[in-house]
Design brief:
Layout: E1 32-33, H1 48-61, H2 66-92, E2 104-105, E3 115-116, H3 129-153, H4 157-181, H5 185-199, E4 208-211, E5 216-219
Antiparallel strand pairs: 1-2, 2-3, 4-5
Helix pairs in contact: 1-2, 2-3, 2-4, 2-5, 3-4, 3-5, 4-5
Protein name: (2Fe-2S)-binding protein
Pfam family, one: FhuF_C
Domain Ferric siderophore reductase C-terminal: 219-239
Length: 244
């Protein structure tokens, strides 16, 4: 018999997911179904969960521009979702179903304690293949969050899909390096192929260029991090120097 595959959580905090069974109402611990963070009010403003997250990001980065904080909050969400889907796919050959109405999120915590799926994870079926399953796990989160942030904070939709692509590439780099350091070359190759497949189709197509090896990404938009006090340009930014 071969060795058991490593736990996805071993890769790093963004790849970890709390799965211990709930002993009561997760809301009593401050959790809420993550889908509630993707909603808007009747007036088209961010619902309380999303607004609280954006305000927390703004406070942490000391920016008074909600648009900038919303952009970076979206990228953080995307990184968490991509890491969970890509990590499981590369290391186990299966992808968990991460339904927004059953995945619980704690806006006051950071990874890995921020996401909780109480109980055993169920995996997706065969239709669509592994690359399709990675997208099926991620886009029920990314599509409604993209719509909410675009409308509530007037952030460019193209910029946000660039953020999602950048987050995917970042997850790939961490996973690829971790796998290679442990001799898991097949898992590293699988992760690269799966990420490349996501970038080959809308809405991530034309967001940037992924090169290998090691994986590197150059995006065609900017996440606005340079507008944060003391912020500079990210390594994959389309800009060559900081504006102004």
């Amino acid at each position: 018999m071969g060795d058991a595959p490593p736990s996805v959580a071993e890769v790093g905090p963004f790849f970890a997911l709390r799965t211990d069974p709930a002993t009561g109402d997760p809301r009593e611990e401050g959790y809420a179904p993550i889908g509630e963070a993707y909603r808007l009010t009747r007036e088209g403003t961010a619902a309380p969960l999303l607004r609280a997250r954006v305000e927390a990001v703004a406070a942490g980065l000391r920016t008074d521009e909600p648009r900038v904080a919303a952009s970076l909050a979206f990228q953080g969400f995307a990184a968490r979702v991509w890491s969970l889907a890509l990590g499981h796919a590369a290391l186990t050959g299966s992808v968990p179903g991460l339904r927004p109405d059953r995945l619980w999120w704690h806006p006051g915590r950071t990874a890995p304690g921020d996401l909780w799926w109480p109980g055993p994870l169920s995996v997706m079926g065969e239709p669509g293949g592994l690359a399709g399953q990675v997208g099926d796990a991620a886009y029920p989160h990314l599509l409604p969050l993209h719509a909410a942030v675009t409308r509530a904070y007037r952030v460019s939709g193209r910029l946000l899909w660039g953020n999602a692509a950048s987050a995917l590439a970042g997850s790939l780099r961490v996973l690829h390096d971790w796998c290679h350091a442990r001799g898991l070359t097949e898992a590293a190759r699988r992760a690269t192929e799966l990420a490349r497949a996501q970038l080959a189709h809308p809405p991530l197509r034309d967001t940037g260029i992924l090169t290998c090896a090691p994986p590197a990404f150059r995006r065609r938009s900017c996440c606005l991090y340079y507008r944060v006090p003391g912020g500079g340009l990210c390594g994959d930014c389309v800009l060559r120097r900081r504006p102004g």
